[in-house]
């Protein structure tokens, strides 16, 4: 009984190693691509200077995206707690939150943060 289990296990290990070796040989060409072998796949040439200028507009858009993403995380529990809390307290909290959100958006719009090309 133990002999059969050992033979079957050994056969499974050998088959698995054979399949892995076959896959490695078959897909070796795609692994040797210059872009895939570079440490960064972000579109920047890793051999160029690391002090290249970076557009501040990309940074501002990323920060705005994070802010609105966090605000969505705050809004979702407001919807779930609408039946638990008193309606007036929930309504005032939601209106206050949306007013702060809209005032921040208006402030960013007036300062020209949302304008991509001037």
Task: Based on the model shown, name its key terms.
single chain; 118 residues; mainly alpha; 2 domains; 5 helices; flat
What is the strand and helix layout of this fold?
Layout lengths: L1 H25 L1 H4 L2 H4 L18 H25 L6 H24 L8
Give a concise summary.
It is a multi-pass membrane protein. It catalyses: a ubiquinone + NADH + 5 H(+)(in) = a ubiquinol + NAD(+) + 4 H(+)(out). This protein is mainly alpha-helical.
Describe the structure.
This protein has helices at 2-26, 28-31, 34-37, 56-80, 87-110. It has 118 residues and is mainly α. It is built from five helices and no strands. It is 69% helix and 0% strand. The model has no long low-confidence stretch (mean pLDDT 78). The longest helix is centred in the first third of the chain and has 25 residues, at 2-26.
Please estimate the helix content: 55-70%
Secondary structure tally, helices? 5
Number of strands: 0
Helix/strand/pairing category? mainly alpha
- Taken from the alpha-carbon principal axes, the silhouette is flat
Sheet with the most strands, sense and barrel status: none
- In terms of DSSP E residues, the strand content is under 5%
Query: What is the domain total for the residues?
Result: 2
Order of helices and strands: HHHHH
* Unreliable stretches: none
Distance between the termini: 79 Å
Q: Output the radius of gyration.
A: 28 Å
**Overall pLDDT confidence:** 78
